[in-house]
Amino acid sequence: MTAEIAEQPAVLGRLAGRHAEFLDQIRAALPEPLAGTALLARGSSDNVAVYGRYLIELTSRRPAGLAAPSLHTRYGADADYGGYLVVALSQSGATPEIVQAASAMRRSGAVVVAITNEPDSPLARACQVTLPTGAGPELAVPATKTVTAQMLAIVAVAAAFDPGVVSAADLAALPAAVERVVADDAPARALASRWERAGRLVVTGRGMAYAAALETALKIKESARVHAEGLSSADLLHGPIAALDDGLPVLIVAGGERLAADEAELAARLARIGVPAATCGPAPGADLPLPEAGEILLPVLATVRGQQLALAAALRRGLDPDAPAGLAKVTATH
């Protein structure tokens, strides 16, 4: 994981250079008129799909949602996808149910776009358009560079509807911002030390940050064998907060200016009930500090910090973060 985390500035720099190319590919393929967008994925790619759902509904002004692969592979769903854009995400491009569902949705009238690290994969062959992330071989089982690469590719999909969703300046600055995070893992090591005895924790965020919270929780589960639950901070208040106590830490992932008041209110409420909390964001004093990046790209930086935290937590527990027990790089769900 260490080496692949360190590769992310270069990977994202290459992808940022292809942003306009990807945007044009999507624009040329879009259904007219667009009925909506469905995102199809599993695992870490599913967390990227959550990010994409927010971005694409915001920019397309049409409904965007997550598709359920088993509806096609187990229930034989035959929905009409005429007028739909389907974005299928898979690092390997080889997960059988994703390939099968993408093929079924294409037959049902959708324009299907693959975002994958393997441009010659079964998924790429099943789709009309492929956006190759070009992250290079990823050997550690927990995905890192392929995740943030998918995130930047999904930004290009969203930008096909509204190019102004992310500025050229923010895109150009992203690799250097990620480099700053990668170059200083001391905050992640310090938080992993502080929470070393925690057998469970919650990672929470709202809006664009929700995806980063989900992905951070997954990485901690995979790498450190700690039961980490990713929750929308709004959902956290709708019941789960009752299960929190002084032995269940909460990491709050910042989502930008529009959510700052919500995050401050949540932190204050957690403090009142004695729940240990930490923050990941650009505000002064954050436990896991981030450079400023704009609210659209901030989740990419938060995802990298989450990778560092998972890695540090695994190493403190004497675990091999690259090869978690019981996991394989490609999970063949059907």
Task: Give your account of this protein's structure.
It is a single chain. This protein is an alpha/beta fold. The protein folds into two domains: 2-171, Rossmann fold; 185-316, Glucose-6-phosphate isomerase like protein, domain 1 (Rossmann fold, 3-Layer(aba) Sandwich). It is built from 14 helices and ten strands. The strands form two sheets. A five-stranded parallel sheet has the order 2-1-3-4-5, with helices on both faces. The chain has a five-stranded parallel sheet with strand order 7-6-8-9-10, with helices on both faces. The longest helix is centred in the last third of the chain and has 19 residues, at 298-316. The protein is globular and about 55 Å long. The protein starts with a helix and ends in an 18-residue tail after the last helix. The relative contact order is 0.15.
Strands across the major sheet, in which order?
2-1-3-4-5
Q: At CATH's second level, what is the architecture of the largest domain?
A: 3-Layer(aba) Sandwich
Strand content: 5-15%
CATH fold type of the largest domain: Rossmann fold
> Helical element count?
14
Key words describing this protein structure:
SIS domain-containing protein, 14% strand, carbohydrate derivative binding, 10 strands, globular, five-stranded parallel sheet, Rossmann fold, 47% helix, 14 helices, 334 residues, alpha/beta, GlmS/AgaS_SIS
